[in-house]
Amino acid sequence: MSIAQNIIQLRASLPKEVTLIAVSKFHPVEAIREAYEAGQRIFGESRAQELKVKQKELPSDIEWHFIGTLQRNKVKDIISYIHTIHSIDSLRLLEEVNKQAAKHNRIINVLLEVHIASEESKQGFSPYECRMFLETIERNAYPYIRITGLMGMATYTEDEEQVQNEFRKLHSLFMEVKEKWFDNVPYFKELSMGMSHDFPIAVEEGSTMIRVGTKIFGERVY
Ligand SMILES: *Cc1c(COP(=O)(O)O)cnc(C)c1O
């Protein structure tokens, strides 16, 4: 199937309140253009340098989401157009985003990344660190960012029950965080979870944003 057909079919299978982020990392601008022609406007990239090149060549009404590990010294390269950063996992990174956003007088949406998988290598706060982070940050000190939710990745496994449990855990943390720290904050509403192989489970467990690459664009060639 073509990229356009994949997008249309995927859209049709999702509840309308779930946002589809087309993860275009490692795919050429032509592929993104094809998805764009099919009506897709939200794209996810995971490397600042690659995003910088693509952003220049593509329509300006694309909403770019950053989903990978973001080095602090790369923040300035993407800050003038990035819409949402899904991978905030330290105070220093949050501070840098706020500082660079201030220079452009932009407000950036950010998600706190929480480590829910059993694999060691995945990024993110532990649930405990996430609570401590929210307890200790000076909430009014970052006027150029809005914390709009949480993001997480499940373990890469065939064991669907494990994946479901991990997503369920993140959803419950999301509810707890919303109640404790964002009770009167309507924009704290996003739970970014689910990728090509596990998004149906994520959607069942309350995901509001899925990040899908392979199912749209095919296998990545690294
Ligand atoms: C690459 C990536 C995705 C998309 O993965 P697919 O399996 O191709 O859908 C989603 N989220 C993050 C954080 C990624 O790095």
Give a structural overview.
The protein has 222 residues and is α/β, with parallel strands linked by helices. Helices cover 41% and strands 19% of the residues. The protein is built from 9 helices and 8 strands. The chain has helices at 3-13, 29-37, 48-57, 75-78, 91-104, 127-136, 160-181, 199-204, 214-217, and strands at residues 19-23, 42-45, 63-66, 84-88, 108-115, 145-153, 190-192, 209-212. Helix 7 (160-181) links the parallel strand 6 (145-153) and strand 7. Helix 6 (127-136) packs parallel to helix 7 (160-181). The radius of gyration is 17 Å and the shape is globular. The two termini are 22 Å apart. It binds pyridoxal-5'-phosphate.
Task: Please supply descriptive tags for the structure shown above.
alpha/beta, eight-stranded parallel β-sheet, binds pyridoxal-5'-phosphate, 222 residues, 9 helices, single chain, globular
